[in-house]
Write a structure and sequence with these properties.
It is a single chain. The protein is an all-alpha fold. It is built from twelve helices and no strands. The relative contact order is 0.17.
Amino acid sequence: MNQRTSKPSVSRLVLQVFQGALIGLGAVLPGISGGVLCVVFGIYKTIMELLSNPFKNFKTHVPKLIPIIIGGGIGFLGIANLLAYFLEKYPDTSVCLFVGLIAGMLPSLFREAGEQGRTSGSFFSMGIAMAVIFALLGWLNVASIVITPNFGWYLFCGFCLALSVIAPGMSFSTLLMPLGLYTPFVDGIGHLDFSVLIPGGIGALATVICLAKAVNALFDNYYNLAFHAIIGIVIAATVMIIPFDSFTVSAGHTMTNLFYLVIGIVAALVLDYFNQKVPVEK
């Protein structure tokens, strides 16, 4: 009996580290939201409870999140630079892979959002959130604003980074790339540049302190509306990063993009399958 219960524990630990690595990657790569991955992997509520009441929940929540934190560090600082290289070298296929990953996660998002039932208001919330994100990202793309990075703008980068965790679907990279802040911010983090780390950390910490409790209360009181709004945000943000132009380059290019799109969908579905099979330790 003991041997049978120990295997899931080891499997769960390995899976959580892997999930943390994906969350770390999702936090840094364009179009991906670390917060969405937290929702998909079922740890978003735990993280928000910890952030909104850190002293009260430290002993009960931090031990559960240690594997996730370790994996997140690996994904954010270790693997992210390598994948960022591929994103720069092979942008279209990389983005198609990421789009496939997000698309493959949508079923689990819908499943999570419907845990407390669905109403017409749920789908209205999803539609409104989708329209807002389409309008916001569309405006940023049309405006093509470029800003010179400085202390104040790195504070803003930290705000966006924290927002992408506490508000699932909000990818900080999607917000920063049109402003020309994404590359210097990520490079600064990867090279441990304190002129980037200090203001970015201050901005992220201030955001968590100011917004974590409000977002947590929103989900406690309006679970259906909030979760379906997340789905609307995810769909809109994902559609906005699809490289539609690359599908018209050539038949070979189109087939390559579709191949990586399918690979991403299958990988996400397989990960969700194993995530459901491995029992959660309480």
